[in-house]
Fold this protein.
Amino acid sequence: MSDSVKLTQEQDRIFSIDFFRGFTMFMLAGGLGGLFGKLDPGSGGPVVNFFQQQLSHVEWEGLHFWDLIQPFFMFIVGVAMPFSFSKRWARGDSWKKTFYHVLTRCFFLLVIGWAISSSATGSNLNNVMAQLSVTYLIAFLIMRKPIKWQLLVSFALIIVSDLLYRFWSVDGFNQPFVAGHNFGSWTDMMLTGSLDHGNWVPFNAIPTSAHTIWGVIVGMLLMKDWSPRKKIMTLMITGTIGLIVGYSMNSFIPIIKHICTSSFIIVSGGWCLIAMAMSYWLIDVLNFRKVPLFFAVFGMNPLFIYLMGGSFRSFFGSLVNPFIYRIFGWAGEATIIVISTITIAVMLWYVCYFLYKRKIFIRL
């Protein structure tokens, strides 16, 4: 039996979900996101410049590919939730028991997220784990409601967030789309006592809950007894509508990831749906599995790799870079950086594969 088949059976869910999550984790922790940022933009040419731009966050207004990685993660966590909880409820777990489990998980996500981003003297809540602790809880609380009510809550969160930014009247924080002078910055000041976080704000957890809620709805759709064509068309059409609406809003509500404006939430949600449709079509319909297996294995231990990825990259770099610089020194700095980054990423993947083969899954 092939690894890809075994992986699908063990997880008892659609393989494209594992791929999507693994790809997202690979981008978050694999080190490739900063690959082109290490190269000299003046000597790389248009191709390198394009990747340098797309693999970095927009300074303020606009949207690059790298700005979609966190929405992808929030979204795919939601997609997996119906599969996970339906199994727990099918084996007899009560809602109360699963709610206690969710509360415990969210508490540790918040504490760990705060700890890894904060210093000895300053606090910071602006990271994926801390925000997921909020979005996950909200999505769970309403996931047994009809889909129309889940959609209503998701858009209510977006609208309320937008209104707070527009009508917040505290002096110095009443300019909705100005960096450091908006409602989100005020919440950052109140929660952490500082604005020294690159204009990222913890309040983002509220509007981005929509991504996790939409993920739950997509998970429910994928569990339906629909034809693959109907599932794909539903995702593609809805995602395309999200792109049209989101980009159209940009003229009066700028797309800003740092404060997760409503236009950003909708357009990034559209990209999430389209990416999920493409993953499902390629992997579960066309049965293209070998390359996706690489990413799926990477996503089997998301908490472990998110927390330890940086330490492993530094350790592996200290092992391989002396050899790479001596063997490929003749090829130039750009080639050395590429070879080093890819080599370290493969070594990091092997750690995940080692854990997967031994059925070691570190979860909250």
Summary: The chain is about 70% helix and 0% strand. Residues 302-327 form the longest helix (26 residues). The radius of gyration is 21 Å. Residues 64-288 form one domain.
